[in-house]
Amino acid sequence: MPGTYDFGLVGLGVMGRNFILNVADNGFTAFGNDLDEEKVNALIEEGGDTKRVNAHTNVETFVGALTTPRKIMLLVPAGKIVDKVIETLLPHLDEGDIIIDGGNSFYTDTDRREESLKEKGINFFGAGVSGGAEGARRGPSIMPGGSREAYQHVKPIFEAVAAKYQGEPCVAYLGPKSAGNYVKMVHNGIEYGLMQLTSEIYDLLKKSAGLTNEELHATFASWNEGRLQSFLVEITSKIFSRKDDLGTGHLVDKILDKAKQKGTGKWTSQNAMDLGIPIPTIDIAVSMRQISALKEDRIKADALYDRPSPQKVDKDRFVEKTEQALYFAFIITYAQGMHQLADASKEYGYELKLGEIAKIWRAGCIIRATLLADITKAYQENDKLENLLLSPTFHQKVEQTVASARELVAYGATNGIPLPGLSNALTYFDSYTSARLPLNLIQAQRDFFGSHTYERMDRDGIFHTEWEK
Ligand code: 6PG
Fold it and tell me: Would you call 115 exposed, middle or buried from its count of C-beta atoms within 10 A (0-12, 13-18, 19+)?
């Protein structure tokens, strides 16, 4: 006999516990499952009323507690554990039941799982969930992909728990198969790009304009009131005001400069390479995390080479320039990510609606930003837009800010301050907006040494030249 709980969730870590409490807050009954008895008890205690939120370590009891078709979300680490959990659930499920993987699973794993579960009559969703622990509790952005019909069963719950942007839920059915995980992967690639850019601007403001942590806090806080308003700028401002609990001064100055990564940014870059879509700002953000990890080498090399000491700059003017350059580079980063999504949609048959994706990123997720309202508008005006740089919505915004990016990139190069994200964003812009690039020479070289042939601008056909004859 089926149970009475509307929603099931496996994996009662911080994300899982918060998500299930969010479901219950929105009027649905929910049942959790975890092998760890402590986590099960913690949820029951926090839920307050077992008729509303309950949990058990036993899988059969868990599955039996749910209404059919069962809606079971997994919030467990990506990889083999997902397969293991599915395996333990399967013997207890009925045809038509729905499993939703809410982790950062690799999109081809989702395709494989969806295919094999379909044969067993089970609907499988890959649903990216963004917003961290706080988002899971108060309203994340949710990116589900899978069967459109089965989504109807999940929709009321997801729409209730998702973050709201001016009343609209930040969740939408994105497309078939692994569309949801793929979109979340690119979301994270964009996240890497924005974070790298923010760190470069911090470096400039600190080393060149001499801003103190208090001034950095105030600067980012004021930017967060303007067009740069975003979750990442907001938390950056808060980070600069945080004092060190374990010593004197500010915490940010004590944190080791080695950035870790779980893989989603790297996957975004790897896949963009496979698709042949340039996303250099995201690529370099991944590389910079790798360079940051080489701390011991960096210390040795730092002692070996001289570096210019940064020239003095006018503080107020510099703050203004950095705001403009950061805004410019944020636009370029979103443009690269959206371009990748557009191409992947064709390649993998996702039928993505880029305007819908921009919409559900406007609140709840890590890359939420005022800018996404403009991106939504750009796709509403033209849903076939190849690149945000071709949109009238962005033309003026880019024209007005690119000069500051140029000035800062030149300043960084002369003064030995690495600005890889910013300079890549600028190079991408200068190349993408050049009708003629010097790659005619590369074609000539390829034909010279390997008879690889070339095309001409003045006539059709494929040509080869015996260059030394
Ligand atoms: C989110 C985040 C999240 C991710 C972190 C850490 O949208 O809530 O993207 O899914 O786990 O950003 O990622 P890295 O460890 O790779 O930096």
Answer: exposed
